[in-house]
Each structure stands twice: as C-alpha cells, then as structure tokens.
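Justification of computing resources. Each target in the renewal requires a structure prediction run like the one illustrated here; the chain below, 212 residues long, is used simply to show the kind of job we budget for.
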Amino acid sequence: MKVSFVRRFWVTISSAVVRFYASILNRFEVVGAENIPAGGGVLLAANHISAYDTVFIPAAVVKKYPWQMVWAPAKEELFRNPLIGAIYRSWGAFPVKRGRDVRAGRHLGSLLQSQKVMLFPEGTRHKDGKLGPGNRGVGKLIYEHHPVVIPTALSGVNHWKVAKIKQQGVIRFGAPLDFSDLFELEDIKATHLLIVERVMAAIASELEFSES
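Resulting structure tokens:
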C-alpha cells in the first residue's frame, strides 16, 4: 500500500513524542518487539484496557520499524469530530460501522495481506484490566487471511493519569501463533471460535508474565 512520505514522517515523529511521554516521563516497558516480523501481513491482537493502547502499540512498533504504518479499525463515532477524526486517520485508523460492515471488512482483509494491523479481539475496553472473551469474527478473519498473529498484552496503563509522571506500564509482544492445525478444519463457527480462543489464551499467558 502506497503511503506518502509526509504521512510516514508524521507518524514516525509523533510516535517518538508518544514514546518520550510513555517511557521517559513515565516507565512504560516494551518487551518482545523482536517477535514482530519486519514484513508481510501481521495482526497485533491485543487486550484493550485504556485509550493509551491505541497509540502505545503503534509507537512501540514504529520504534522497531521506523516509517512503517500500523493500521487499525475503530468505531465510527471516533471520527465524528473532523479534527480528531483526521488525527486518527493520519495514524492509520479507519472507521467501522456497528454490526456487519462489509466494506470495512474487505479493507481489513486487504491490509492483512501485506500490512501490520492492530486489533482488539475483545471488541470493547475493559478498564479493570481483566481479559474478556474474544469475538468470533476475529477468528474468522484469521482463518480467511492467514496473517502472522502476534499476541499483545498491555498492563498498568489503565491506571494512568495524563498529568502524572513515573507511572508503570508494560506491553509484551509474544511469539507468533501457530494455527496450522486449525486451518485444516472446516470454515465454520466452531473453527473460528477455536482460533480466537487460542489467541485469547496467548494474550492471557503474556499478561501472566507481566504481572509476575
């Protein structure tokens, strides 16, 4: 996908600002970034505990791979304000309608052929930090497009306050998941559920490392 130099420059520079806030003013640790492939279709499947997640994940990836984009589907309500919407879009977010959004689904599938995509399988934010169940649609997406799936776990940032400093937080990128056995199964709901359950179990495992 062609992305202008200006846009990539903006994402790279603004990511550096985010990392300054996260890791210098605060104590946000990035673990396992070496598990993220340099190229190819990659799905960063993460738990969702804070609004910080949407900028900390791409900022960590861009540190590892400057000039790359991390795309993300986001609820269309976030784009109603033209200025806020423009900022979200500049970072690679694109709107998704509630329910079944065929157009957004096709766009997401296209991105997963060659790009890095950030997705929250739970489908909603859990401010208490507890991991909820994954959405079956994510399992279907993985089954159809076979991206490299990186389980991604965030902890601590759900307690952060914007004006505070020296706050603790961690993001862990796990090893790529193997779905070869499940890809041999029939393309049905049960298979999709097995796939997303494996994703959520891997995220839970990474969270256990963060909390130990």
